[in-house]
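Blinded run. Sample ID left blank on purpose so nobody reads anything into the name before looking at the predicted structure. Input follows.
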Amino acid sequence: MTRELDQMNGMPQFPEAYWLGTAELPAFPSLNEDIDTEVAIVGGGMTGLTAAYLLAKEGFKVAVIEAGKILTGTTGHTTAKVTTQHGIIYDELISHFGEEKTRLYYQANHDALTFIKNLVNEKQIQCDFSEEDSYIYTNSSQEIQKLINEVTAYKKLGINGEYLNEVPIEVEAKAAIVIRNQAQFHPLKYLKHLVEEFTKMGGKIYENTTAVDMEEGDQPRITTRDNHKVSCRRMIIASHYPFYDTKGFYFSRMSISRSYCLAVKPEKEFPGGMFINAETPTRSLRSAEMNGEQVIIFGGHEHQTGKEINTHRYYEALEAFARQTYGIKEIPYRWSAQDPTTLDKIPFVGHYSPTTKNIYVATGYRKWGMTNSTNAALLLTDMIVGRKNPYQEVFDPNRFHADPDVKKFLTVNARVAAELVKGKLESPSAQPENLKNDEGATVMVNGKRAGAYRDEDGQLHIVDTTCTHMGCELEWNNGERSWDCPCHGSRFSYKGEVLDGPAETPLKKLSGEA
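Blinded prediction complete.
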């Protein structure tokens, strides 16, 4: 998508998340030596940093390593709804797992919500925290029965929810369900406080330090890309997508999707509350504040990573929705997020594998990471300390249910196999020399498929489009200017740098026009 079209639409030319643009985060050094610690945490997002804070409070010596800058991954690209209302989920979970396990899933996330509320109040954290009601609404007659079934599930589980015939915002809605007394906040301002407290307690954080391998045993050891070693007694893999996947096979047990957000200064005032619709395409709304002015965060348009080339159209669709509902004065930010979903929609939190009792993992939050990540940190802290936790079995990464796991496992991996073959058979017709400034495409270079992007200054960047994870062929994403994998969701910058795992190794750069 060209620069001129971006300006015509009134959107920023390059994506940047509202949260990252409105928070000042501390910087930390890279790891430049071998170290030894009691607990090593891979991943500087909400899970890793919350767990680090909790474990340091318990007296553990903790080190966190982050491949980039802390909080700039999925945590920095969320909608930051702190809620137990994770879409239409509870009726489905009851049908698969029964009321007892579903109630535990709800209670775990409710406890996480309560933890955040209490910590904000106790520490007086200035993070734009506010209690809000959370709504799912629909304007589709076909979706009404789903809402009725879901509110029935609320009653079975003791959730403070109700069925409504209208919503207090500028959308067409025939019905809605609501859970009261949920919350929203600025996640980076909240986590900045935890980071400050963690480092005051002696905790160590290393940025721009990529974990590429690990050794198991009584004293696990992480190897970084710069070949430094982190030895520990306990390890938490909280890298959004597990960086080490030789035993867990998480790549085969999760699907990866992307979704999109705009931060809009509206013409009409938003009344508060958090909203998402039941039908597709998804429409999510919540408010925030920027320099004393209200902004509305519009989100939606989920799709499988690597399956869409013209992703800019999703921003345009959100812009049209924003203009139709609340009007637009300005669009200061646009961004997208990537999320893994497990086969049964419950996150994986616990032992990395049955044989690794001192290595833990947390992943698969299905776009509801604020409570799920906090629950994961609380659960893993209890496991490391040795406290009994009532939610351990529900989130066990090594669980397997015949329904729905088998069918989804076969579907997901059949799709991956099809994508692998499809990519190898493609013969792009574009030529690198024909690309305009700020344009990318798959091209032929020396008779082989490659990826090319010409930047604003006219410089051409050519990379091998074979994903370094398992060899699938990448697709160009024009909204983010990235190369995305349709098989397991890895993403790379136009220069070949890894943006999202499970890939760890950058793309090979190819020679081309300078």
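Unblinding after everyone has recorded impressions. The chain has a mean pLDDT of 90.
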